[in-house]
Write a structure and sequence with these properties.
Number of strands of chain B: 2
Structural class of chain B: mainly alpha
Radius of gyration of chain B: 19 Å
Distance between the termini of chain B: 8 Å
Number of helices of chain A: 12
Largest sheet of chain A: 2 strands, antiparallel
Shape of chain B: globular
Oligomer: heterodimer
Strand order of the largest sheet of chain B: 1-2
């Protein structure tokens, strides 16, 4: 057992790094849907925006200044994009949820296409900021420092999101909106402002995840779909609207992706689907999903 | 959804299932547009350039794919984003059968239909248990997994280079090499496919499917098993998506993973939404717009047809909630039928 762990340590660590990234991405998707009934299929495209932003600022050599600037700009772009999505989905609020999903799907096609016009169709690689670009020795293995840092950032962000959602009054509002939106609005809280804020923060997490993920995944056409699917699988496994679910789902899918691809490369896709199938057969609403769902 | 609309539809659903239910044969006048369209389509190679004929053939293939998706989205109320998985399964199967076994006549296309049905039966069992947005996400995941499989199994599928060297379709041993001949082959199979899907949607089963779309609890309380009907619809839709994939392989003779990918599925959904979910003929027009923009207009836009399609998509959601079929606003029967694109209430 210990020998197996030792042999696959690198894959397991990679799984945690992917899991951290997926959590940052999926928690926004999950809360936006749980709270606002908006299934944001442009979430993957926003990730790609972040990744290309990182490439723009780091392709001439990765510096901390460039990296932090990319994070800052990405956060701002994400907030604005979330605001725009909120305005765009507002006229569809009374139509079936699917219409909002279709709208964001159309938006994601447009965004992905514009990115490929601007940046071309080649896969671009992005360097990690200085000091993190090397491999370090970790538990007797040589491992990329950036990925270790990513695991750390993911854990910190997970803790921050958890504390904000579970322990603050803002979080109470978020949880209350997930549970019963009508009641929250009956208490005099402007649903539209909450929607703008939640979509803004959710989209910001997606673009920031794109910057953080760029040194691992690079930036290329099609990455948006791959990432979106992984995030959706995480959300489905964890349960819509649940922070804890997003965290557990992200860690599970991170390991499935990394260990699966390392140990059984030919059937890794089946394992991903198998995990999803197993969870849904046992718990149709996901591991930590709500009992009642608006969208179903 | 208003209760009266739901009950009317559910009533028609039930009466359609009754033996000897009132079903008027379509009048000659109503069949006329379809007959005219068919004659025009059959004559097309005589007055179109070979390239235009090929594009028209692609429209037919994509239209069959879109109409099979409409059986799910429009008729049953199951919005699938991963329908390209079965299109891709069919295309790869037809390609492999043509290369390794025979490219004679209908054999590869029928094998493709079977592959689509089997793939849909294997994955649909899970997908159909969910509904609404959950169904959307599950089918999305299924589609992506098939895409990943097509990319990673390069010894079978040729990986990201695609499956090439697919021989031309043969009829009685003679390979069809002229664009017009291939087009007629595609037209014949596609029209047969449309007819089958139309019959399914008009059959008592189709009535039940519409009833499920509009009011699933009611159908359940009437003693139907919605799961079984939805599953059957999913497998039929998968089978015809597979047939469409088989036609694609016969026509293009190159199959790449993107045929099974997210964008293909999204564009099929665009064709359905644009044409009008539930109308069956609407998605044919929607498919024509999609293929014309992507294949005919695309090259003049430096291959950025998808950008135009994305914008069309966004506009269609706002401006055409019922698609072209809603614009035409034709018969009372059509108007009565709720578009129910989500079936979520």
């Amino acid at each position: 057992m210990i020998g197996w762990f030792d042999e696959n340590l690198v894959s397991i660590l990679n799984g945690f790094a992917i899991g951290s990234l997926l959590f940052i991405l999926a928690v926004g998707l999950s809360i936006v849907f749980g709270m606002m009934d908006v299934l944001n299929l442009a979430h993957g495209a926003l990730f790609l925006v972040g990744a290309y932003l990182a490439w723009s600022l780091l392709s001439d050599g990765a510096t901390w200044g460039g990296f932090l600037a990319a994070l800052g700009i990405a956060a701002l772009v994400g907030l604005l994009a979330g605001g725009a999505l909120s305005v765009m989905t507002e006229p569809l609020a009374r139509r079936p949820i699917l219409d909002q999903a279709l709208l964001t799907l159309g938006v994601s096609l447009v965004v992905a296409e514009v990115l490929s016009i601007v940046y071309g169709n080649d896969a671009l690689s992005v360097g990690a900021p200085p000091g993190l670009a090397e491999s370090v020795s970790f538990l007797g293995r040589s491992y990329p420092a950036y990925r270790l840092a990513l695991i750390g950032v993911g854990l910190v962000l997970a803790a921050v999101v958890y504390v904000v959602v579970e322990r603050t009054s803002v979080g109470a509002l978020v949880r209350a909106s997930v549970a019963d939106r009508e009641m929250v609005s009956a208490m005099g809280i402007d649903n539209r402002k909450v929607k703008v804020a939640v979509l803004g923060i959710g989209s910001m997490l997606a673009t920031v995840a794109g910057v953080l993920g760029a040194p691992v995944y690079g930036a290329r056409p099609g990455l948006d779909d791959t990432i979106l699917i992984l995030a959706l699988v995480v959300v489905v496994i964890g349960g819509l609207g649940s922070v804890k679910g997003a965290l557990v789902g992200a860690l599970v899918i991170g390991q499935v992706e990394s260990l699966g691809r390392a140990l059984l490369p030919d059937v890794a896709s089946f394992i991903l689907f198998g995990t999803l199938a197993l969870v849904l057969v046992l718990r149709p609403r996901g591991l930590f999903g709500p009992r009642k769902l608006a969208g179903t | 959804m208003s209760a009266t609309v739901a009950s009317t539809v559910a009533d028609t659903a039930v009466s359609a299932g009754r033996p000897g239910g009132r079903r008027r044969p379509p009048s000659l006048l109503r069949a006329l547009p379809a007959v005219l369209a068919l004659v025009l389509l059959a004559a097309a190679p005589f007055f179109l350039a070979p390239f235009a004929t090929t594009v028209l053939g692609r429209v037919l293939v994509f239209a069959l794919f879109a109409v099979s998706l409409d059986l799910l989205v429009g008729v049953t109320g199951l919005p699938s984003l991963g329908h390209a998985a079965y299109f891709g399964a069919g295309a790869y199967t037809a390609g492999l059968v043509s290369i390794h076994v025979t490219s004679e006549g209908l054999v590869p296309v029928l094998a493709a239909g079977l592959a689509g049905a089997v793939a849909a039966a294997a994955t649909g069992w899970l997908a159909v248990r969910s509904s609404g947005v959950f169904f959307l996400m599950l089918t999305l995941a299924i589609g992506e997994i098939v895409f990943q499989l097509a990319t990673t199994l390069d010894s079978v599928t040729g990986g990201s280079n695609g499956l090439y060297g697919i021989p031309a379709v043969r009829l009685g041993g003679t390979p069809l090499t002229l664009a017009g001949h291939v087009y007629w082959f595609v037209l014949a199979v596609a029209v047969a496919g449309f007819a089958c899907l139309w019959l399914v949607s008009r059959s008592p089963v189709g009535g039940v499917l519409r009833g499920i779309r509009d009011n699933e609890p009611r159908l359940r309380s009437l003693g139907y098993s919605p799961f079984r009907y939805k599953y059957v619809a999913f497998v039929i839709a998968g089978a015809f998506a597979g047939v469409a994939g088989g036609l694609f392989a016969a026509q293009v003779r190159l199959v790449t993973p993107s045929e099974a990918g997210f964008t293909t599925g999204a564009l099929a959904l665009l064709a359905v939404v644009l044409g009008g979910a539930g109308s069956l003929w609407g998605p044919v027009l929607g498919a024509a717009v999609v293929v014309l923009v992507r294949d005919a207009l695309g090259p003049t836009l430096d291959g950025h047809g998808p950008l135009v399609l994305g914008i069309v998509f966004v506009l269609a959601v706002y401006l055409l909630p019922r698609g072209f079929a809603g614009l035409a606003g034709v018969s009372g029967a059509l108007r009565r039928r709720r578009t129910a694109r989500g079936g979520t209430t």
